Structures are given as structure tokens and as C-alpha cells.
Amino acid sequence: METTDKDRKLPELLTTTTFDLPGFRVVKTIGIVRGITVRTRSLPMTIIGGLRTLIGGRAGIFTTLCETARDEAFQLMINHAFDLGANAIIGVRYDTGPMVGAAEVLCYGTAVVTEKTK
């Protein structure tokens, strides 16, 4: 049985939005890593979410869609870094693009190899 990215266990990598990791030093910079995903809702859920936007308030359907997309993009970025031999990612950022009924999310950072400082 073949495994897919969804079946892979998320590797243990340090991640941070900053450009340093207290207690660690960067010994090698590998380069930019990213994960991108576009998630869509079914037509009925898109209609329900659209109706919710007409009356205002929190649109839980779209919140769930965005959270799922962010998590998937993050995991794809982690897998990309792991495949390149990194043990950490610094400067992690998210970018999104507006799409009707869908969520596009890009997660990116700099893959590095670190070692603990003494």
C-alpha cells in the first residue's frame, strides 16, 4: 500500500516566526521551503456560508475552511524542509489569496540545520 502526504507522520522540526532560535545556532542554511494548498467547500456549504455573510457575524464554515487550509499548508512546508534535511524552519510566514468559496494558503520559511548551544 502506497502512502500519501496525508498519511505521513509530521516530522519533529523546530519552527519559529523569528529568525533565531534561543538555545540553538544555525550551522547550515538550506533555503526557502513552502507548502501551498487550495481548499474548497461543497456547493451547499458555500451557499450556507454565503447566506451567513448577508446577516453578519461569525461564519464558522469559512473559519473551519481557513484553519484546515493553514494546517495543511504548514504540514506541507514541514515535509518539504524534512525532505531537504532540515531540522528547523525560521522566519515562518503565511500568505493568503481571496477566492470565492475556497481558501488558498501559502506557508513558507527558511529551512536550516541547527545545533544546541552550550
Keywords:
118 residues; alpha+beta; Translation Initiation Factor IF3; 2 helices; 39% strand
On the 0-100 scale, what is the average pLDDT?
A: 81
Secondary-structure-based class equals alpha+beta
Please provide the ordered H/E string of secondary-structure elements: EEHHEE
How large is the count of helical segments?
2
Oligomer: single chain
Please identify the top-level CATH class. Alpha Beta
How would you portray this structure in words?
The protein has a single domain, classed as 2-Layer Sandwich (Translation Initiation Factor IF3), CATH 3.30.110.70. It is 31% helix and 39% strand. The chain has 2 helices and 4 strands, in the order ββααββ. The protein has a 4-stranded mixed beta sheet with strand order 1-3-4-2. A hairpin with a 2-residue loop joins strand 3 and strand 4. It is elongated. The protein starts with 13 loop residues before the first strand and ends with a strand. The model has no long low-confidence stretch (mean pLDDT 81).
Topology of helices and strands:
Blueprint: E1 14-15, E2 24-40, H1 43-55, H2 60-83, E3 88-99, E4 102-116
Parallel strand pairs: 1-3
Antiparallel strand pairs: 2-4, 3-4
